[in-house]
Every structure is written in C-alpha cells, then in structure tokens.
Write a structure and sequence with these properties.
This protein is an alpha/beta fold and 231 residues long. It has a single domain, classed as TIM Barrel (Alpha-Beta Barrel). It contains eight helices and eight strands. It has an eight-stranded parallel beta sheet with strand order 1-8-7-6-5-4-3-2. α6 packs across α8. It is globular.
C-alpha cells in the first residue's frame, strides 16, 4: 500500500540515467526505495521538458512499487486519465495550473489514483483548507520546480510544520490520513530535520542517483529517519 510505512523514500527519476530508466527503477527499488517519483514537465508551466504517459507505461512492468506522478504542466486535466491508464498510483498537480482544483482532485480519484496538491515555495497553504476531503497527499516544493540538483530552501521547514499542523488537526477531527511529501534538495545530512518539521515522504533525485551505491544512500537516509523516531 502506498501509505503503509511511517516514512517513505521516493527517488526522482529526473536524476536517473534516461538511457536505461527501466534498469534504474529496478535497481533503486532493490536498494530500498518505497515509491518511484516521476517529474512531468511541459516547458510551459516550468522551463523544462521531461517525460509523459508513455514513459510511465513503459516503466510500470518493471516494478510493483507505487508510481508517484508529479504534474508540472498546464492545463492538467487532460493528462490525468492518460497517466492513470499508464499505471500511476498517485497523481499530484499545482493549484495554479488548474481552473477548478476541487474538480481536478475528484478527477484523479475517479480514475483510481491517490490525489495530491503541490505547493511551490511561494504558494500559500490556504488552498488546502477547502479540499482536505479530496486530498491524499500534500507535496511541498523546497526548491522552485523545473530542474534537479537545486539546494533546499530553509524556509520550507516552517511551511512544513504549518502543513503538518493542518493535516494533524484534520485527522484529529476524524479525517482520513494525508501524506506530507517534500521535494527538492533532500539529502542524508538534512533528511532528519525535514522529518522533524513534519514530512513523512521524501523525494530525492541527485542525492541518490548521483552516487554509485543507491542502497548505501537510501540506508543512510533510513538510519537518519529511524534515529528521528527514537529521539
């Protein structure tokens, strides 16, 4: 199940070797990854162009791990059924890219996927307040979207804590579980502080794929997270 673990590590294929993506997926899951994160960029909403539903469909037979699709596209609705059909388990989008956020979230769920909302560094969390009933995941960008390898923006820690408070209040009042994901500049040396601020799901690209031993990096991240649990 996508949300069964307390902490989840989701390597971003944006930093993988595009010439052998299937092999990269197999290797990183064997190394201990929980999810596979697909960064979908359209050179319109963000200044970069990456992968589409065909890539998702090609990767689906290579793993049973949940595929976490982050849509950095505008508009979003027409791509949602395509990614659902291609095997996505989770689909997230930016509220600025949808004319009707509630309707887009409902569309994702209607196609059998978990639905997520993505917040850029300057996007207010108030969007959450009106759609909590349709949210399965909240993704906070700790860099400005568009390119991998950027440094973590420290102010994101305070924003994470605010998002965690909103989610905890929702759950305490009888609401369903909502995952809190972070994406951008996540590394071994800062993952514990990010978890302490409230994140439970961690997208890491260059920190994992930029190293020769994926398992060593993921194990080191997991050790930091486990230390955070017991301290």
């Amino acid at each position: 199940m996508p949300f069964s673990k307390q902490y989840r590590i989701a390597p971003s294929l944006l930093s993988a070797d595009f010439a052998r993506l299937g092999e990269e997926v197999v290797n990183v899951v064997e190394a201990g990854a929980d999810w596979i994160h697909l960064d979908v960029m359209d050179n319109h909403y963000v200044p970069n162009l990456t992968m589409g539903p065909m890539v998702c469909a090609a990767l689906r037979p290579h793993t049973q791990a949940p595929i976490d699709v982050h849509l950095m596209v505008e508009p979003v609705d027409s791509l949602i059924p395509q990614f659902a059909k291609a095997g996505a388990n989770i689909i997230s989008f930016h509220p600025e890219a949808s004319r009707h956020v509630d309707r887009t979230l409902a569309l994702i769920r209607d196609h059998g996927c978990k639905a997520g909302l993505v917040f850029n560094p300057a996007t207010p969390l108030s969007w959450m307040d009106y759609v909590m009933d349709k949210l399965d995941l909240v993704l906070l960008m700790s860099v400005n979207p568009g390119f991998g390898g950027q440094a973590f923006i420290p102010a994101t820690l305070q924003k994470l804590a605010q998002a965690r408070k909103k989610i905890d209040t929702w759950m305490a009042n009888g609401g369903h579980k909502i995952a809190l994901e972070i994406d951008g500049g996540v590394k071994v040396d800062n993952i514990a502080s990010i978890a302490e601020a409230g994140a439970d799901t961690f997208v890491a690209g260059s920190a994992i794929f930029g190293q020769p031993d994926y398992k060593k990096v993921i194990d080191a991240m997991r050790a930091k997270l486990e230390y955070n649990v017991y301290t």
